[in-house]
Design goal:
393 residues; mainly beta; Jelly Rolls; 2 domains; five-stranded antiparallel sheet; 17 strands; 11% helix; globular; Cu2_monoox_C
């Protein structure tokens, strides 16, 4: 996702991307740094405390990483969201496997979600240069980290706590790897202005017994969003072209072009069709076993589903969330892992509701818009996540 071409490739071959073995917890630890905004109780704004982690299993150890200093976000380009990347070093001297993680959003009032990218040793200098050349702590990073070959190895969204799979499953972390902590700051309440500082952190669960481990990766299954304004709404951004251009203005051409890329990928040449429900079929590139699933939308989300080979005799629903709650985005381990084979279809389906814009505290007062894929809290996403590894059984 470092440029428009890489973004389309990442979406089209999303099953080859690495991601988190676990959704991470949201316990707030330590005292707030000076200037930090207090947590709020509005829906979709503050996040509750997470339970303590499960005991370490054989061969595992904890390691905590965090932002070296507090950061005060401010949204660029007239928007109300900032994606900021911070470089952290786990100081690995031998290969370890990430078997779980628990994110601690220190200022939960403004932390929308967080993603951790593994930076391979051969790209570590590029990451360090990007950090050094950017003013202030970290760098702005809509999309991914901006570093070549980054791999998504951990994430957190509201309601997601540490979810452990079998103890022999994890994400490989070679010696010399760095990590980039990407934090999405939601500044709707302050109109994009600074609203306190944040100093979030993550606790990694690592296993150094590489010989006993089997590698995991998580497929990302995106779908377009073509959600028109409600019948009672009017405004310049109710025009689709204007809305797409507005996303590009706030987040850059890469993000601005993503909706059209998704329509091209998912609609098989058909033009975009406005409606509350959209889906996308993704072909599985190789045999694997699916161990867990999750879904991600923003505040207008109503439901999300992930299906394996829909419409066939062997169809199976892997995830069905008929009443989506932004504050409950936990990863769901499957009771029975699902074998998938090269050429199988994974379908993600999302339903959104533009009427929620006038009901939710965070969105009241925002301009009516034709909603498409975008990185902002007032934009939308339709994203399925499928944690898999090994060959299908």
């Amino acid at each position: 996702m470092g440029n428009a071409g890489r973004a389309l490739g990442a979406l089209a071959v999303a099953l080859l991307m690495g991601a988190a073995v676990a959704g991470c917890g949201s316990s707030a630890g330590g005292s707030a740094p000076a200037g930090a905004a207090p947590a709020v109780s509005d829906p979709h704004a503050g996040h509750g405390s997470a339970p303590p982690p499960a005991p370490l299993r054989s061969g595992e150890r904890f390691q905590s990483l965090g932002m070296p200093v507090a950061y005060t976000p401010k949204a660029p380009n007239g928007g109300t969201d900032e994606y900021r990347c911070f470089l952290v070093d786990p100081k690995l001297t031998k290969t370890a496997f990430l078997t779980g993680s628990q994110f601690v959003p220190q200022n939960a009032a403004i932390v929308h979600h967080a993603i951790f990218f593994r930076i391979a040793p051969e790209h570590a200098d590029q990451a360090r240069k990007l950090d050094a050349d950017s003013p202030g702590e970290g760098w702005t990073c809509f999309g991914d980290s901006g570093v070549t070959g980054d791999a998504w190895v951990a994430s957190w969204a509201p309601g997601a706590n540490e979810t452990l799979l079998a103890p022999n499953l994890g994400y490989p972390m070679p010696p010399g790897s760095l990590m980039v902590m990407q934090v999405h700051y939601n500044l709707l309440a302050s109109g994009g202005s600074a609203a306190g500082s944040d100093q979030s952190s993550i606790r990694l669960r690592l296993n150094d017994d590489a010989a006993a481990m089997s590698p995991l990766q998580t497929g990302l299954l995106p779908a377009p969003i073509e959600l028109p304004c409600t019948a009672g709404e009017t405004g310049a951004l109710c025009d689709r072209a204007a809305a797409v251009a507005d996303v590009g203005k706030r987040f850059g051409a890469e993000i601005g072009g993503r909706e059209d890329q998704l329509v091209k990928l998912c609609n098989q040449g058909a033009p975009p069709a406005a409606g509350v429900t959209q889906h996308c079929d993704h072909k599985v590139p190789k045999d694997a076993t699916v161990y867990a699933v999750a879904g991600h939308m923003h505040l207008l989300g109503r439901s999300i589903k992930i299906e394996l080979n829909p419409g066939t005799a062997g169809a199976r629903t892997l995830l069905d969330v008929p009443k989506y709650n932004f504050d409950d985005q936990a990863i769901h381990p499957l009771d029975t892992p699902a074998a998938v084979h090269a050429g199988d279809t994974l379908r993600v389906t999302c339903t959104h509701d533009a009427a929620l814009r006038g009901m939710l505290p965070q969105l009241k007062g925002t301009a009516p818009r034709y909603v498409v894929w975008g990185d902002g809290t007032s934009d939308e996403m339709c994203l399925g996540l499928v944690v898999m590894g090994g060959a299908g059984r």
